[in-house]
Specification:
Keywords: Signal. The protein is α+β, with helices and mostly antiparallel strands and about 120 residues long. The chain has one helix and nine strands; from the N terminus they run H-E-E-E-E-E-E-E-E-E. A hairpin with a 2-residue loop joins strand 6 (about 75-85) and strand 7.
């Protein structure tokens, strides 16, 4: 009877440490290109920093580097916002290991971009 408990505990610990390693590898610089429905293109550059379940860092904007606000991470998904010109731009993302999918919304306008490690 002890063997199934030991195996289950070992598997559970492996899942925990694998998830933690995945989250930590989101750290660093990520770049991409945001294309709007109107045909405009905006370069994206984020520098993510993970501390537990908190996501911080910076986003490069035409106004310079802006702090990432209200960032949180759960599993391989995360949320944060960046304030540019008094406008709160919400981000929801998913980490895929070698890329990041991010949905960006400002009011009713929504866009999607794929980021790769810089």
């Amino acid at each position: 009877m002890k063997t199934p408990k030991i195996i289950f505990t070992a598997l559970l610990m492996c899942c925990f440490f694998t998830g933690f390693a995945t989250i930590e590898s989101l750290n660093g610089s990520w770049t991409g290109l945001l294309k709007t429905d109107q045909g405009d293109e905006y370069p994206l550059l984020y520098n993510f920093k993970i501390d537990g379940d908190q996501l911080t860092g910076t986003a490069k904007t035409p106004k310079g580097d802006m702090p990432i606000n209200d960032g949180s991470i759960k599993g391989d998904t995360f949320t944060f916002n960046v304030i540019v010109n008094n406008m709160e731009i919400d981000h929801t993302g998913k980490f895929y290991g070698d890329s990041v999918g991010v949905d960006i919304s400002l009011g009713d306008a929504r866009s999607h971009a794929t980021l790769i490690r810089k």
